[in-house]
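tokens incoming
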């Protein structure tokens, strides 16, 4: 007689030989065939692409390195000019505004209600 562990009853129960040798939902090894394509289209390998289509942009890294490595006394987060200054000032305004809002909320929450 064969036994297997029942997850529902939390004890050993009688079982067939096949169920005893594949416990708790483990299934026998299935053949390793690739599944059929879902949309009927195969994907292209990177080696199949032409060399001209592999990269469609220009390399901006050397230009950015020149900008960021310039020794002009500015911090890195302000080196790109007006857009960086606007982002920095907006971030600082939101931070200060959020801090003031939190302090006001704490002050209001600390006051007892009059009944």
């Amino acid at each position: 007689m064969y036994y297997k562990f029942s997850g529902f009853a939390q004890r050993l129960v009688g079982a067939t030989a096949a169920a005893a040798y594949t416990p708790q939902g483990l299934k026998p090894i299935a053949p390793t065939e690739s599944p059929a394509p879902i949309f009927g289209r195969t994907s292209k390998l990177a080696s199949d692409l032409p060399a001209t289509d592999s990269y469609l942009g220009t390399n901006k890294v050397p230009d950015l390195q020149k900008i960021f490595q310039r020794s002009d006394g500015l911090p890195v987060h302000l080196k790109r000019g007006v857009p960086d200054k606007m982002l920095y000032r907006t971030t600082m305004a939101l931070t200060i505004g959020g801090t003031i809002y939190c302090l006001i909320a704490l002050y209001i929450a600390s006051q007892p209600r009059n009944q």
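note: The CA atoms of residues 67 and 80 lie 7 Å apart.
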